[in-house]
Amino acid sequence: MKLLIPTEGSYGYKAMCLALAGIYAWFLMGLDVDGYIDRMNYLLYAKHSDEIFDMYAASSLKAFITNEPVWLLLNIWASKHFSPEDTLRIIIFFSSFLTSFLVLRSYPKYAFFLVLFILMPQVLKNNIIHLRQGVGITLFFLGWWYRYLPLRILFIGLAPLVHASFFFIDALFLLNIAFSTFRISTVWRMVYTLGVGIVLGALGIWLAGALGARQGGSEEYSAMGSGGSGLAFLFWVVFSVIFFMEGKSFLRNNFFAASILVFYLSTYFLLPVTARVFESGMLVVLLASLGLTYWRRYAAYALYAFYFCMQWYPLFGLPGYGWGAESAI
Q: Which residue windows are transmembrane per the record (predicted)?
């Protein structure tokens, strides 16, 4: 399993990454606090996380763990020092700054594509409307980047306690550690991951309910299906074909990214929250794909551009680029 360790680059490039990440985070932090979808919900977290925390703590250990206690603790701490509005601004700034900086400095040779990645709507919205997920991605990437093992374990372990989608991502991460430890062949890795995906896809919502997670008891999640038209499925099938055509050596080194693709495709029509899970791991997939070679590299470039344009095209002209509070009315 290949570790996603950012390359060193020059001091000038690092300074440029810091500046770009700062501008990116400052802009997102400066958006209207209550002008976007779900912001009122996050303001309620900023005001009442202590009450929510106590409610889950009084119920059961499994309900407490599966209902994002670290997110609640973060809000409890911030609410003691800042207003609810400033709490949101601080969360947005630090999560968007750290994630964008780690992405931008990862592969200097591909700086243009790295900027493209952090501007993709499915990445950008995690610091606009899905703030918990944005913080979870930040924690996971901090763990993914650290060479010091205790900190890697700490940050990766904290991610699902901020956003529940990382229970799936961490499960895939641990599965890949097992694959590497026992030197499982690439073919069997595929088979096992596909099997895990189908089982979790079929039982995911039931399991969430059994563990006391709020997603399991939500009629919205239980009845929504995958929520996709099938076009995203077709796009990522094409992407996966190109990814897997790179060969066994590439797949062995990047099987964590491959497992995220396999899990997403195997659960697309089964697990209601599969798109959110995939969004949590999408940057891992995109960064791994920068290692493609020959015609596959250029095919991936074309897919990046197509995906970027097709994601942004329907959002232009909408309030808040489709994320404004008016869009939900």
A: 12-31, 87-107, 128-147, 153-179, 191-211, 223-243, 255-271, 277-295, 302-323
